[in-house]
């Protein structure tokens, strides 16, 4: 193999490696953007929950949040679980009120977008979330979530 062929092969390998790195970075950027948009939607829902709680002194039903969500025109949040029926009056503000499971690739990973009772929204890694939720769930909630859903 002459020096010119070696140079061509080396350049080709460099271009392939750079392309692979670029694709991986772009996939991560897409996941970060999707997570940020989903968290923004959950924050807006958190604001609506706080307004409702201030006005009516209770947590809103899930149908209220679903109706409010249609105004946001953002589908990145996806389906979310709403725990209001199992939260007692006067509960701690750090109780998980709603959460959405997210499975992103690469660096973002698997986790949950979590809204607390006080409207605070955060990203929690899967293991941490499951440990916190397990401490907060009642037997009735666990039973209901384990039942197969009929459509």
Tell me about this structure:
The chain has 151 residues and is of the alpha+beta class. It has one domain. Helix content is 54%, strand content 15%. The protein is built from 4 helices and 4 strands; from the N terminus they run ααββββαα. A 4-stranded antiparallel β-sheet has the order 1-2-3-4, with helices on both faces. Strand 3 and strand 4 form a beta hairpin.
Strand percentage: 5-15%
Order of helices and strands: HHEEEEHH
Q: How far apart are the termini?
A: 66 Å
Overall body shape: elongated
Radius of gyration: 22 Å
Query: How are strands sequenced across the largest beta sheet?
Result: 1-2-3-4
- Proportion of helical residues: 40-55%
pLDDT average, as an integer? 85
